[in-house]
Amino acid sequence: MQGKRTVFPNKVLPYLLLLPQLAVTIVFFLWPAAQAFWSSFQREDAFGFKTTFVWFANYTKLFADPVYLNSFRTTVIFSLAVSLLSLGIALLLAVAATRMLRSSRIYSTLIVWPYAVAPAIAGILWWFLFNPSIGIIAYVLRRFGIDWNHLVDPNDAMILVVIAATWKQISYNFLFFMAGLQSIPHSLEEAAAIDGAGPTKRFWTIIFPLLSPTTFYLMVINVVYAMFDTFGVIHATTEGGPARATEILVYKVYFDGFVGLNLGSSAAQSVILMAIVIGLTVVQFRWVERRVQY
Amino acid sequence: MVENRPLLNFLSHLLLILGVAVVVFPVYVAFIASTHGPNDFLSGVVPLWPGPHLLENYSQMLTTGLSSSGAPPLLPMMWNSLIMAVGVAVGKISISILSAFAIVYFRFPFRTLAFWMIFITLMLPVEVRIVPTFQVVASLGMLNNYGGLIVPLIASATATFLFRQFFLTVPDELMEAARVDGAGPLKFFWDILLPLSRTNIAALFIILFVLGWNQYLWPLLITTDPHLYTVVMGIKRMAAVADAEPRWNIVMAAVMLAALPPVLVIVAMQRLFVKGLTETEK
Fold it and tell me: Which residue segment(s) compose the domain that A284 sits in?
């Protein structure tokens, strides 16, 4: 691992400097993760008196459980919808904003601030807009003959949480696309323009391919965001309902662990989620080594 | 811009204005709702122009709150959020800068192991290991206090990486000169490295402040005592009540107040914020 050519000779000091970070890491990260791993192989009886070692029973039960499989499917649909929508909208806005010479900073400021809004608050804002009895969007939809009710209709509920989660994420993607677009050399686009390529052709043959490292990086980050950081959106609005239509995996871990008190199953779900995060992190870091290029 | 195309310029402006409108719309409606009286919603639709109850709603929210929801007034909740946000930001920055210093400027057994242990935290977000982490915090007696809210969140791989990357770009000559002049490691850290890291620290502080303020799941688990509720999680309790009784006006006042501090921070420090965001996450 990279370090300095010359270093300080102290033997004990570096350990003291590392101590706080490592202590927090071990006590609140590694130890709980090991606990989750351990208890995912155990089953606790209803009163918590006795735990038995059950090997992979928690896992096999999970993957035979239609509720869990359904939660998996919900998570995939939700994450893909949020990632693709927020990436697409952000790219469109970023391309438009880089065309602007003077107004690009003002537009950026106006688009960027939702980054600071908590997911839970984003959820409540849209929950209010779509509220079946007093929400303004629900009112307009009714005028168009659409009977919106996210309290009853699973699809409506899903659309609601996707919109809320997307709304918050656009700002983040926008910033990275802006940075990516600004780093593309101007001369390439000018050369193509001289050769007679129009704006659309230039976008698809030059800008979009050169932007692919940014896009790929953002894709991973967005999936992570949609899978893990949107707990607040779900918990503050639909609470996984109606009929478990918006119960993403992270919500289910929480619900089974704290409300259902099914600790073995919740631990097994935690371990599966950890495996997913580790997979995504590996993908992300491999990409940093070998950038996607055409 | 390569060539002048008036139509394309017009379309771009149109698109951006539309985008800004979509981004601003929910907050605009929330703001409007927060300026009306409780009965203005009974007609079935939210009004679109400000009403006369702005000060009344906000001062009610800040000082007395929505008593039927069991949540305290907003002012103490915002105070808790502030403590948590600053605590998380300062904690993460301090322990990360120290460990980056150790990793870059010293050579000692298990250096790589320490680096990887810090790296692993990146793969274990709190949402994933909720139950066991809660049990650890409970067994340490850290439920319902600021320590429990802050300390378990302050390990940070990204902040450590950022400082490590930055320290690697600091010229070796600085350290050699300091050693020749007889400065020990701590003096070098305090008098040279820390001042050089000022911009990085400021940029990181903004990102981490917003992150800390917006924590939701963690305070939800750790605090059962209303005196320690943070504002983002406290609002959920009010919103749950608001569906039963028409109090959306003051719930939206609470939403505005909860969202305002972090939004103000990043709008006021946009340049630093963008730098922090695009550099820490890579």
Answer: 57-289
